[in-house]
Amino acid sequence: MPCFRCGARQTDPVRGASPWRRGVRADHQVLVCPGCQTAHDWADDLDRCAACGSVALVCRLGEVECRDCGHTREAVRDDPRPADLVPSSAVPRDDRGLSEEVAAALSRVLRRGPAG
């Protein structure tokens, strides 16, 4: 899943906590890359908890849950994946390298040699 603000793809993280942040926008789970988190208003486009106002939301199994206060509600979705979650200017036009990246990641995970 790419960053919803700039379209950057998440790469294999180093050990430890991921620098990417999760959030919810239009009742869909989204990711925010570390670069976009440096913007002072990076969380302004995310949904907020109705109970406490936090943006620490996760969307799973048709529910949106606040990780700060525990408030849950049903996810209401008109569209399975609204087009405005990732700006069209941020969507890569050429994904030829994606298959190579996936093959390399699978090789690392499955401890095989380089993909041929």
UniProtKB/TrEMBL annotation:
Residues 77-97 are annotated as: Disordered. This is Uncharacterized protein. It comes from Actinomadura physcomitrii.
